[in-house]
Specification:
Layout lengths: L1 E7 L5 H17 L1 E11 L7 H28 L6 E10 L1 H12 L3 E5 L5 H6 L2 H8 L3 E5 L1
Parallel strand pairs: 1-2, 1-4, 2-3, 4-5
Helix pairs in contact: 3-5
Protein name: Universal stress protein
Organism: Proteus vulgaris
Pfam families: Usp
Amino acid sequence: MTKTVLVPVDFTELGLLDKVVSHLKALSVADKLNIHFLSVIPSYESFVGFAFAGQDRLASDKQRIEIALSTLKENLSHVDISNSTSQFYVSIGNPRDKILETAKKIQAELIVIGSRNPGMKTYLLGSTASSVVSYAESSVLVVR
């Protein structure tokens, strides 16, 4: 059986990716995985500073993330996740919304998302992982 898995990647927290990959390896023992890696660049429209950031900064960030995804592809080519295929995406917008939108579009059966240990910021503002868990229509595996 093939299982479609969405893996959001936060390039500011690459340490979490190693933990996620180890879970993907374990999952691939039981099922063939179609893994979709997604990196979301937060839209500057969400922030007050959008007027100061402008489209040039957004384009620069997208280019930086595409390079990082390219590096991720190379790094994962050396990782043996048996019985799997991988696809990579970059999206711009609200991370939770883009993750949920992509999960629905690819009909993901599982979202595997890394989460930092909670801190004061998480409790006050909420984290992307907890927000995805709250609104996802599919199962979510949160990796710490």
